[in-house]
Amino acid sequence: MLGLDITVIVVVVIAILVLFSGIKTVPQGFAFTVERFGRYTKTLTPGLNIIVPFVDRVGRKINIMEQVLDIPTQEVITRDNASVSADAVSFYQVLNAAEAAYQVSNLEQALLNLTMTNIRSVMGSMDLDELLSNRDAINDRLLKVVDQAAAPWGIKITRVEIKDIAPPVDLVEAMGRQMKAEREKRADILEAEGSRNSQILRAEGAKQSAILEAEGRRDAAFRDAEARERLAEAEAKATTMMSVAISEGDVTAINYFVAQKYTEALGQMASAPNHKVILMPLEASSLIGSLGGIGAIAQEVFGKDGGPSAPSQPRAPAQPPRQPRSSTIPGFSTGSDTERDA
Fold this sequence. Notes:
Strand content: 15-25%
Number of helices: 9
Distance between the termini: 187 Å
Largest sheet: 3 strands, antiparallel
Helix content: 40-55%
Shape: rod-shaped
Structural class: alpha+beta
Radius of gyration: 63 Å
Number of strands: 8
């Protein structure tokens, strides 16, 4: 019985060992390759997997998560012989665990050297100005080239980013001077264009002003001519009417005509700019008397009915001469009759 018990125990232990050696648990984010007598047979995915005990074994444990690869700084000579320092970062992911395990040795080192080599190739085929201004284009070209080269290894390059491009200090100073000169040139060009546009606008404004002024003078001349024509027509019509009235013996019209001309003459005399004091030849009431006398003369000449003049009535005896006196009209300084006679 003792020997049988030992045999059972040994069998149970061996069964447990066989069971544990045939069950493999793969964590999430990893893939295990299985080798049978040193030859790749299959790939274990995350979870519980069973293999043939003592025949199959786990070959490589591959990380299938996206990983980052830091590219160290390196010197790059551009197409125009400018030396710059550049560093980058690359992101990749294993899509085929078997190819990543058995197609390349030391996967990270291979990806590092592949990326550095293509960085020198891509950046060396560009000028410095193009290199500094087209970083996105550089990233796209690097991604395409490196991804195509790493495809046989079962690797997918997801991103390649240039972190920094550092030209030498003297080259940076030269670029600063060049940028300053370029900006000054653009400023001079813009100032010249602004001055030219300003002169053109001023000339156009002067032209329009001259055109409008000429049109204004032309319209004013037309209106003045029209006004003079109408005034002449009115004067001619008034003269015609006055002639008709005189020929018909209209005393009222004659009185109005003479009074109007007399009043206009007095107004022109009073409005002269070089007269400070005006000596009036008559009193303020003499204007009315003159109008009455002129009307009486016209009545004697033409008669009441417009026929030959009637015999004049005997005049009243002459009045005694008046004493000299002064008459004051608002706005005028009048002298006496004695000063008038003098």
